[in-house]
Amino acid sequence: MEVGGLVTANPVWVGSSELTMTLEGITACVDAGAGAVVAKSVNESAAAREQLAIADYAFVSAAGEVRPPGVARAGDGLLNRSGLAAVELDDWLAMLAAAVAYGTSRGCPVVGSITLGDPAAAARIGRALASVVPAVELNIGAPHGREARAVRQLTEADGVADAVRTVRAAVGVPLFVKLPGQASDVVALARAARSAGADAVGLVGRYPGFLPDLDGGAVLGSWGAWSSPGCLPMSLYWVGKAFQRLDVPLIGTNGARTPADVLRFLAAGARAVEVVTALWTGGPAVLRELVDGVSGVTEDFIGRALAGTREYADVAPLPALAWLPYTARWRSSGR
C-alpha cells in the first residue's frame, strides 16, 4: 500500500498517542503488525510538554457510565485531556532514530508528528524530524487547540494553506496533514492543504467534548477531546466527500475500532486508517485482528462505496414512505 509517497505493508496504522511516546510502545506496535506507526506529537512549546502532567482520561460506556480509572472496554467512548511528548527535541530524535531502524528492519515505517503551535517553529522541527523519519505528520486538527494555548487548531482554508506551505518548504520527506472534523468545510481545508504541498491528508481529528457527571461537576473537571464508535459516520462523511472532490491520498482516523470499521474507511476512500482507542482497550495485539480483517483488499476497493451515492436531489422517491414503520405503532385510529 502506497500513501503519499510512503510504502507500507498494510493500511492499518497506529496514530499518534501516549501509546507511541516511547521506544517500547512503538516497537510493540511494530511487532503486532502495524502498517505504520505515527510517533507521539511534539512542538516547540514547553507548555505543551508540561500539559502532559495534567492529562486525564475517562472511558464512557454506551449507556453513559464512566469507567473507573484504568478500566476500558471495546465500544467505549474516550473523553480526555492530553499533552505532547515531554522530552527535549535532541532526545526525541535519538529515540525516533532507534524506532525507525527497528521498524525499517520489519517493514513498518515510523512517522514523526508535529502538533501545530507556531508555523515557523513547526518548520524547524519538521526539518529536524525529516533527518531521521521517512515521513512527517503535521496535526493542525487537534481538538485541544480550542482549549490549550500551546497548540492550535486551524479551521479556515487560508490559515491551513499558510501553515502547510511554511512546513512544506522545510520538510523534504512526505508530509501528511491531519485536519479537524469541526469546520464549516473540511473539504476546503483538504484542498488548501493539498495545494500548499501536502502529500496526503488525514481526516478527521477528534471532536471537542464535555460531560457533566450529574453530581454537580464535570467528568475530568474540564472540557476535553471526544472519540467513540459513534464518530465513525461523521469521519466517513468527510473522507467520502474529499475522495469524490479531490485528487489527494486520504488517511482516515477517528472512529475505527474493528476490522469492519477499517474496511468502511477504505470503502469511503481512505488509503490507510489510523487507530488509537482500539489499542487503549485491547492493547497492541488488537492490530493483528485489524490487519487480518483487511487482508486481500485491493486498489479497486478504495472508494467503492462512493459509486452508488447520490445527492439528495437525485434520489428517486422510495416505493414506501420510510418513516411509517417507526411511527405506525404510535398512531391510533381517529387521530
TrEMBL record:
A GO biological process held by the record: 'de novo' pyrimidine nucleobase biosynthetic process
GO molecular-function term, one example from the UniProt record: dihydroorotate dehydrogenase activity
Domain Dihydroorotate dehydrogenase catalytic stretches: 69-294
Pathway: Pyrimidine metabolism; UMP biosynthesis via de novo pathway
Superkingdom of source: Bacteria
Any one GO CC term of the record: cytoplasm
Cofactor(s) needed by this chain: FMN
Key words, A-Z: Flavoprotein, FMN, Oxidoreductase, Pyrimidine biosynthesis
Heme among keywords: no
Entry protein name: Dihydroorotate dehydrogenase (NAD+) catalytic subunit
Source organism of this protein record: Amycolatopsis pretoriensis
